[in-house]
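Slide 14.
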Amino acid sequence: MTAPRSHLRLPCPDLGACIFVGIERDTRGTLLSENDRFNYYPATPMASISWVFEGALHMVKAYDRGSPPVLGPILPSLVFSGPQSRPFASWSPGTVHAMSVAFFPEAIGGLLGSSVEAYIDRTLPLEEVAPASLLNCCTSLFDDREVEPFLKLQTLLQPLWQCSQENYGGPLMTGWIRSLLGRAAFSQAGSSLRQLQRRVKSWTGQNHRQLQRYSRVEEAFALSGKHRKDGAIDLSGLAVDAGFADQSHMGREVRRVTGLSPAHFDNQIASSEAFWFYRLIEGYVREGQ
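Slide 15: predicted structure.
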């Protein structure tokens, strides 16, 4: 038996303002318990397209400790998810090989030809929302399995993507949020506060306050290693460093994004296979520091 394989994929510079990050998960050849086959993710302003190459995945509709989870139907092999205002989870009944690619909301809106605001907290077959050009691009990843799927996707997307070549430095979203607010403020369409807020909402489906929450929680996640001593995190010092009013403020915001208190969240990352996504991002952050 092998260990589960999880890979973080960053886009090429030409797609740096289109793709936020790609995540590939492969548990084939592994033996995981039912609990280890959960996949936990944070609330996010990003939209995503997911491919299930082998195996099956269900969205988790409800889960209480000590009770069986309430599962949705098996997801299509090619699925679109809009921005998620709450943390969410999926579960696989067996081994699975899947890839999810997160897109900046204004970028996927351009590719879809419609704002992502209509898709917040929704998960749909991609064929129901994508134009033929994008659908054909994404479907073709199932045809040639000899080519690494994320590389193939980028090759096929480039002719469809004719916008800004700016690179926001994923998989952290702070640079994108800063650029987004700057573009909204200096747009020729008007510069009043109300116009800025409307512009941000139309591009992302989120308001400024929500985006700032993601940025602060991300900052806390990135700085947590610097505040760790003897295996525990100085939560009070971390809250100040990450820009929160106090520790309680940080606790509320972290819970809104992850569903857990900061201490419980830290413990789950350290001990639970189901929190593999957070460990993957954490590893990238530490390498970049």
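Speaker note: The chain is about 35% helix and 20% strand.
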